[in-house]
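Something for you to look into today, if you have time. I want to see for myself how the chain folds. Leave the record below and I will have a look.
***
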Amino acid sequence: MPTDSQHHSTPSRLDAWTIFLVFLRLGLTSFGGPIAHLGYFREEFVQRRRWLDERSYADLVALCQFLPGPASSQVGLAIGLLRGGYRGSLAAWAGFTLPSAIALTLFALGIATWGDALPAGVLQGLKIVAVAVVAQAVWGMARTLCTDAPRIAIALAAASTVLLLPFIWSQVAVIAAAGLIGVVFFRPATTEAHVVLPVAVKRRAALTALALFFALLMLLPLLASGTD
């Protein structure tokens, strides 16, 4: 429930077409991987359009990082859901995903047909540019979230752990441990003012989706091992 220190204004709902066009522009201009996309999203939806505040966006990113799959796609789906319901979520996914899917398909067809004509080093150059884009996104989020020495130390420790232990469950363990550390040592004395995000999902639908998630999480590895 919102407290007195929170903003009670609910962000206005947007139609699916508007959400689609906004995410389509991002899909056509955002390069790099999920971390870079999170930086683009923050610049577009927090700083420019003010669809979210910093705290709400950071909460969404933290939640989506804890889930399996690309965090940027999940954050985009969540933003579309918050601003336009289920249609807005679908519009956000389509607008952001279709450009890269179409470009990747055309690129694959082009490589298969004219691969020998592609100058040497082009792909390597694109990878180098992507590194710079990701670094800029990480730096922008770090300046907002890592504001003091303890938070910087936790971020460095988490990064070192996942680099030294490159396993799936080590990433989950690091995220869970960081959450526990935050609850114990970084609980704010007073609740900071922030926009309370409207959740356009009914409780029954949320519980059904959660049960389906855990069912697939347990069954899919068993099915995969059975097909080997």
Summary: The radius of gyration is 20 Å. The chain has eight helices and no strands. Residues 71-114 form the longest helix (44 residues).
